[in-house]
User: Which sequence fits this backbone?
């Protein structure tokens, strides 16, 4: 691939590499998305499958644009990275990348500058840049997707923590002694109650207790459970109550610990906001310090599925490592 600026400035190839879908886009410095695609994330034991899929996605984006104009690549990973953001240490929903030097592999294939970042961190940056957290400097972003991700911004700066592992909100232990096992190796993580995967699991586990549920005999997905809840199905409503309760407990802990200005909730499972919001807020009001609970704003994400892509592009444009090359 060759770097070309073209009449509309430089473009970053941003990718949100989820456990279920790979979403790619070409994004400029103003946050305009010029080309976008969505594909299934390849399954298998070899990380080369993911690398090949990323290269193919970039080629397809350039084909749709009609010219080669990618200046850099910014790839979001659903897991933890090493302190240099070069090696994927653990990606619970994309295990083929565990301990894989993804950055160097992509640099060899793309022959362009490459940035790696945690997907939820980038979503937080995207929401602070162009979304629900515009104008604020202390932000927590929680993404409810296949898993539960988190990004923390303090005083306007992304909080990476020692070794780059900060912000793993989905793996806050809420029931470590009796909760369901999580792919991270712990038990009772938030991810096991408030993710799209958890919604399906809890509905399946409770089916025998609700013989009259409309979910009987259905192929269970987060959407079918949501649709059932909208129709008043008791099983589905109970599942979303559980998810909201645990999410509220986790948020209350985060409020007490960090005192953010705003908490932004996004991801596909956040589309069920109307079914879990009241339960979430009930737990927050019970458990967070009252003065903090009154002042923090809890908002739905505004950038939708594009929050991570926008954040990825913005991080590339402002990165000291990449800016000199862009």
Assistant:
């Amino acid at each position: 691939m060759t770097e070309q600026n073209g009449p509309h400035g430089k473009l970053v190839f941003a990718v949100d590499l989820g456990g279920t879908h790979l979403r790619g886009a070409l994004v400029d410095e103003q946050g305009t998305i010029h080309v976008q695609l969505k594909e299934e994330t390849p399954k298998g034991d070899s990380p080369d499958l993911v690398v090949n899929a990323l290269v193919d996605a970039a080629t397809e984006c350039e084909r749709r644009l009609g010219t080669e104009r990618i200046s850099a690549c910014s790839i979001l990973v659903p897991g933890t990275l090493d302190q240099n953001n070069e090696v994927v240490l653990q990606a619970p929903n994309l295990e083929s990348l565990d301990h894989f030097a993804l950055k160097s592999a992509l640099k060899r294939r793309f022959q362009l500058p490459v940035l790696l970042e945690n997907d939820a961190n980038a979503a937080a940056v995207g929401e602070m840049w162009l979304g629900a957290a515009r104008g604020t400097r202390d932000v927590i972003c929680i993404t409810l997707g296949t898993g539960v991700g988190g990004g923390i911004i303090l005083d306007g700066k992304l909080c990476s923590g020692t070794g780059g592992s900060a912000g793993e909100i989905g793996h806050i232990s809420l029931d470590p002694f009796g909760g369901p096992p999580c792919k991270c190796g712990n038990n009772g993580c938030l991810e096991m109650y408030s993710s799209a995967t958890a919604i399906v699991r809890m509905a399946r586990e409770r089916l025998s207790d609700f013989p009259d549920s409309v979910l009987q005999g259905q192929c269970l997905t987060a959407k079918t459970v949501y649709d059932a809840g909208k129709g008043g199905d008791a099983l589905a409503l109970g599942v979303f109550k559980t998810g909201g309760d645990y999410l509220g407990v986790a948020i209350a802990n985060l409020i007490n610990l960090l005192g953010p200005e705003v908490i932004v909730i996004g991801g596909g499972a956040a589309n069920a906001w109307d079914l879990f919001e009241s339960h979430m807020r009930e737990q927050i009001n019970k458990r967070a310090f009252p003065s903090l609970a009154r002042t923090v704003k809890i908002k739905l994400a505004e950038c939708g599925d594009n929050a991570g892509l926008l954040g990825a592009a913005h991080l590339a444009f402002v990165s000291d490592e990449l800016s000199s090359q862009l």
Q: What stands out?
A: The chain has two domains: 11-118+306-323, 132-301. The radius of gyration is 20 Å. Residues 11-118+306-323 form a domain with the Nucleotidyltransferase; domain 5 fold (CATH 3.30.420.40).
